[in-house]
TrEMBL record:
InterPro entries: LRR_dom_sf. This is F-box domain-containing protein.
Amino acid sequence: MVNKLWCETVIPILWKNPWRYDIDYHNKIYLFIIIASCLPDDIKEFLASQEILLPSVSHQSLLYDYLSFCRSINIDVLNSIISIGSRDLYDQFLLQQEFYHLLMRKCPGLNSLDLGSINHQIFYFPEAKTNLESLCELRCDTSIEPSYFYGLSRFCQYIQRLIIINKYVKVNRGMVKFIEIQRNLKYFEWKDNVDYFEDYNFIENPYEEIILALAKKAEVLNHLIITFIDYHEYTFLQNVLTKLYKLKSLKINNFFINFSDNQLKKLIYHELEIFNIDCISLNSISNIIGNSGGYLKKIIFKYYDYYLCDHENKFYEDSLIFIQKIYKNCPLIEYLSLAFSSSTEHFKEFEKLLNICQNLKSLLIMIPNTTNNEETGKELLNILIRSAPINLREIRFFDYFQFSLKNLEEFLEKWRGRPAISIRSYDPIYKSDPYMKLIIKYKIDGVIKDFKHDSVYF
């Protein structure tokens, strides 16, 4: 529809991973037609003998061997496309078998495989060895039978990215074995599926054996992302974290994990770039920052209980040390969560941080007990005007953080001429008419890029 050169350039790009787009694949009958037309004649005859009629490409043969460009397979998307051919479950089963086999033949050098809810043992296809040996990324879930992972383990031993959705209440020991045999696992992600866990009681800890298997990958593992939603004893996780010394990114979401400060002091990551853990003390974060190698670009954590649990005035001291650790050890920081007191000393150190950390792009600020404290808000905005790095594009204010209309207007007026800023806040005051009029005015003037009011904590 454009020209031959454009078409020859773009088709291989679009078909490298044709399952990734945000479209309703269940309605894309032409995708079904294209894939079905590539089936060998004997397979078409077999399907016809089963009373499965395949549509043919009209007008002319296909201009391209589209599937030869494909380097990725997504089973759930394929199943959605296959369901166009028949509503009968047995027919779909037969079509799945032939479509999967076709793709294994037609997709040389397969890079990515999303197993989804697969019902076929694709590792028994004649072409499986070549394609599965080249596989770099695998997405799967724990509801798949353990024996399936034993079959994959024959060929898939060089997975670099492994993403697991947990839908089961028991340990999947086939998956444990699959992790153990990997030789180059650089990225591991585990995510509990909330919908599957609501009505279950765990018979055994579904996490421990999986995490312990990761400890054996310390020489190669660079990225660890974990989301647990259930409560268990997580001592094993803390022990494993002390061994994964080559991590570049560490993200753990779970409010039930209470990390021991003594254990966290042992975390030494000289290559760490991204750090994101829920429910961790400022003192522990400071220790981890002090043990890092100066490459940290993102430090994100949640504040919920810090200002409620400020025993023995530790928040005052810990937050001051935390700010100092940042500007002394994180010259490359781009995304930062900050929790600190509203004292003169803290503001002084905060401004020093802004002057030193010139790569800062996004800043989340929490200062306890500032509701209706006009002077605190004014001082904070003045510091941002004086010292905010030129790269700063987003400021988020945690909790009920209010600025007077006058102070906010003065800040926005002084921000004029800098790159447009995005602002996020939890406080509902910014939805009132006076504030909305002010925000709209400065949006039109190009001072504010976006102003969001979050209905939940972020």
